[in-house]
Amino acid sequence: MCGASTVLVVDDEETTRAMLRRVLGNEGFTVTAVGTVPEALALILQSRFDVLISDLNIGHPADGFVVVSAMRRTHPDALTFILTGYPHSKPLSKLCVNTSTII
Q: Domains in the chain, please, with CATH?
């Protein structure tokens, strides 16, 4: 891939967004970080992203599943990652063919 890969980070915790922005930016990624589902959905429609890193429990009016679904529809080749403090939640296992792939 030519140029820096673009990453969309979606998390309602500012410290998580700042950490991912800093770490990924230091590795050469172009990072956009937002704290709400509506912000993420608007960006997904407006911009091209190679990678999505989204919190599962972002808050209302929606959650990380909505963000992942929008990204998969709009940018089907993008890599998508879900962050969660609840790795054994039943809804999360629906995203994986094999739940052992949850990191």
A: 6-101 (3.40.50.2300)
Residue type, 26: N
**Whole-structure pTM value:** 0.81
pLDDT digits (tens, 9 = 90+) for 53-95: 999 988 777 888 899 999 999 999 999 998 887 666 555 555 5
Q: DSSP labels for 20-89?
A: HHHHHHHTT-EEEEESSHHHHHHHHHHS--SEEEEES---TT--HHHHHHHHHHH-TTSEEEEE-S-TT-
Give just the sign of the alpha carbon dihedral 2, 70, 79, 21. positive
